[in-house]
Amino acid sequence: MERATKEIAHSFGVETEINGKNLLPSYGELSVDLVVRGIKEMTGKGSDYILLVEDRDRRLESHSDKLVSRPPTLCPGCAHRAMYVALKEVLGDSAIYSGDIGCYTLGYLPPLRGMDTCFDMGASIGFASGLSKFVETPVVAVIGDSTFFHAGLPALVNLGYNKSKVIVVVMDNSITAMTGHQPDPLTGLMEHNGPSVIIAKRPCALLESRRREKVEKYRVLEDKCRACRVCVIKLGCPAITFKEKAKIVEDLCTGCGVCEQICPFNAIVRWKENGGSVDSHVRFGKGVHSGIIPKCKADYLLAFEPVEGLRRANYLSTDGIAIVNEEPVHPVSVSLGSESYPEIDEVLLHHRISQ
Q1: What integer is the mean pLDDT of 287-300?
Q2: Checking phi first, is residue 325 left (phi over 0); if not, alpha (psi -120 to 50) or beta?
Q3: Domain count, the chain
Q4: 290 within domain boundaries
Q5: pLDDT at 303 over 90
Q6: Which of 85, 115, 313, 332 has CA 20 to 30 A from 324's CA?
């Protein structure tokens, strides 16, 4: 667009200086901070705001030891998680898992670790086909239903032509979940003597939640829980936290039931309850031109989790008010024992200091 704008301006004899990638990065998100910095370079305005943001960011950085990482993970109730668990149960870690682009790419992270390669959209089957000619271990290609129709079909034809011994798993969740729930064609089961295809079919958990129907959620019976952490180590579901014993966060549970199936002590049972979570920016009043709140400009910060509230504390204005739920929701990294969740009193103290 920048080049085209310059060409059009030149064709009309417009001599105005046109700025673009010389002031803004060529990749990544165009946040309010970056745009203000670009405008400052052009006009010299915006220095006070930038200095305020830099000061608030430095304060937040001083509390970084309290900000346990919360890496992206598959949604609670996501059918992809159960498929990865099933693959690992049958084929183990010796198999090579060739991955693709979609929600299921998050299966790369612990504890699932169900992906060894990920290159571009549709590459999983082609990679797997080539690998199968050089290794003796099982080779699995994991691809989503929408990606399969977009770029996987030619590779599957090639797989059959070369008689490559590959298991192709099509993660069919009835929707294009990663990019906004666009519809896609439905798939069926295919099987051949050479390549084999498994259709892992279950609707996206977010798609089901939008139907606003009652779901049968699950809870942990403390007297039966033996703290074996099988539910955490095998699933890595963000709805399951662990501190001495497992606990299911009611608002996150979607009632998929996979945790109940893998618990060796029958300590997870179902109950009926509705729930949900919200994460958003809300702006109203005169002079509102965007739904995104710049840093240091929010009047209120409503945090449903203490550490996540602290992570966004630099959005509060100097006289802003933070309303924080004191009940922690441990990320998967804490439940797996790779990180430690800070004491809640320390988190709340840093909330006050960071403002």
Answers
A1: 84
A2: beta
A3: 3
A4: no
A5: no
A6: 332
